[in-house]
Automatic annotation (TrEMBL), chains A, B:
It comes from Hoeflea poritis. Keywords: DNA-binding, Repressor, Transcription, Transcription regulation. It comes from the Bacteria. GO terms for molecular function: DNA binding. The keyword Repressor applies. The keyword Translocase does not apply. Residues 5-59 form the HTH lacI-type domain. This is LacI family DNA-binding transcriptional regulator.
DNA sequence: CTGAAAGCGCTTACAG
DNA sequence: CTGAAAGCGCTTACAG
């Protein structure tokens, strides 16, 4: 430890005032070059550590940005976070990460902690059931919020996410184009906006192709590889014998393919499977996964940019910004085999 | 925004002093019950937000703990982080996460930022080439450090990691026991302590079984699924035609199996493959992965505990703590086929 | 170009 | 059981 080196330590040792030292260390042009150099050198040799708490107490800007998502370990969020990190790093912001695991309470605790630390802003993929007052809590205390991946009704902050209904329709149409008509939808939940949009997109595509929608072909729930794997049993025992599955995301699709393979069938040949997100992993799965690119990196980058812009005074990013998904056709889908 | 509600706002509105309000909000027994209740109610209605920067400036304790690892998106670290998170949450500490991507500079920046924020401690999986002075930087400024997963020479802080040499020998012996003698080692690097220990463990096991060690059977480098997938080409074209692969970790093993399958061979039957870590994913891979449990959750939990204990004054955890790995036998390994 | 002084919002002895 | 006052380490007008 030793005794703390602070501005006044440097100032005293050089016979200057703390005001001058403070200005010099932040490269103010008010300080003479020679003085500045001398001060910086001294700071270095004394091992001075800038106290951001003290500074931010004074300036009420902390350089801290919070990010809270369902689960940072989920590769979907991980890819978004990587993009956010890149953007914030470039702007020398510290970011604090948290999972809410879809607990509104955990999410609120995080927002409160962030406020206590004087966070400059927050990027969040809201937990299921997030009330708008939780977002208002941040905004009203001067901490702007940006939403990613999911919407919250009646909230007018910037939102960045993929166009889910459009994207899932791409996948469904792809399968219909290959001749499939008995197509199951595996995974997702009506409790999130994303879940509702994706199911709706699937239903729309079927109807447009005059294929009857059978609610029993929906296996709701799975959102992870493990759950997709376990869902294979249900999927394979559906009385309608689907020949294809539109999956909630890549994780579910990969899990489902593993489950199908375990049962002795060949995914991509016996059963066509589509994913969603186009994770890095999708292209190295076996078979490589036909999926829908969902622009994780775009979402992360744009959300971070929007927040930084907002902190710098501009605020024209409010409202919904949809990323347009794109089809990625690989080996996990193939034309319907004639019986 | 409105004007900020602070202690004095509450104090003034109730005709009390800030000292009393401060004590009441932190449940000091010095304050009369009735007064405390009144104060808490008022804080609630005014929407008071505790200013931790101000408090920590005074107390020099921030409730912030930093965690920096190679890559939080790597499931190995993700599983450790999950355990750390659980332990810190329980103790109402905020944790700040960062990747260093094996950049010593990025890691040092993080440590400095943490010091500036008044971090109470740091848990780190040190970047390749971390000099001991970077750890000293934290320690000397009153921020204790705990190492996980990797060691740094000549540093006497607590270290929690698996016993890599022992663990990889378990995997190697398992394959030898199945009759394999031409066993490749895929992935890892001599630049980390972990990499050196694992290769050494592999070499030791072979020598003990009187199997000649062929350096060409080592394919160094891969540490990700993608890299493991790509390494399959090299692996399959080795002139010695190995019948088994000891992989650096589960990710490499799963990638390698995918690559092997892509080449028309059946992993687990034609080629035996072992992983390392026993990620959640290992058991749902196809074939399910024979691997070595590496105690990620243990490491995370113990490291967090050690740090919290240290912050509370005890410090008997210095030095190396090895978690003993265990074999998990599944479907990706099988007896050597007789030619 | 540099310095003296106030203040950011808390907590903590110290009095009473 | 409650209050007055100092101080944590900065930054920012304001003077000179």
């Amino acid at each position: 430890m030793g005794q703390k080196v602070k501005l006044s330590t440097i100032a005293d040792s050089l016979g200057l005032s703390t005001a001058t030292v403070s200005l010099a260390l932040r490269d103010s042009p008010l300080v003479a070059d020679a003085t500045r150099e001398k001060i910086k050198e001294q700071a270095q040799t004394l091992g001075y550590i800038y106290n951001r708490r003290a500074a931010s107490l004074r300036t009420s800007r902390s350089g801290i940005i919070g990010v809270v998502v369902h689960d940072i370990m989920n590769p979907f969020y991980a890819e978004i976070l990587r993009a956010i990190e890149g953007e914030l790093d470039r702007n020398r912001q510290t970011f604090i990460l948290s999972n809410h695991y879809d607990s509104v309470e955990k999410q609120r605790n995080f927002i409160e902690t962030l406020l206590q630390l004087g966070g400059d802003g927050v990027i969040m993929s809201p937990a299921i059931g997030t009330p708008k007052r939780d977002i208002a809590l941040a905004e009203e205390n001067g901490m702007p919020a940006i939403l990613i991946a999911r919407s919250v009704d009646e909230v007018d902050v910037p939102i960045y996410r993929g166009d889910d209904a459009y994207g899932i329709a791409l996948a469904t149409n792809h399968l219909i184009g290959l001749g499939h008509s008995c197509i199951a939808m595996v995974g997702g939940t009506d409790q999130t906006s994303t879940g509702r949009h994706r199911y709706q997109g699937y239903v729309n595509a079927l109807q447009k192709a005059n294929i009857e929608v059978d609610p029993d072909l929906r296996i709701p729930g799975p959102r992870t590889k493990q759950a997709g794997f376990e869902a294979a049993v249900n999927f394979l025992s559906l009385p309608q014998k689907p020949t294809a599955a539109v999956c909630w995301n890549d994780l579910v699709a990969i899990g489902l393919m593993n489950g199908i393979a375990r049962a002795g069938l060949v995914p991509g040949k016996d059963i066509s499977v589509t994913g969603y997100d186009d994770l890095e992993e999708a292209s190295i799965a076996t078979p490589s996964l036909t999926t829908v690119w969902n622009g994780q990196a775009e979402v992360g980058r744009m959300a971070a940019r929007a927040l930084l812009d907002k902190l710098n005074g501009s605020s024209d990013a409010d409202g919904l910004h949809l990323i347009r998904p794109e089809m990625r056709i690989r080996q996990s889908t193939s034309p319907l085999k004639q019986a």
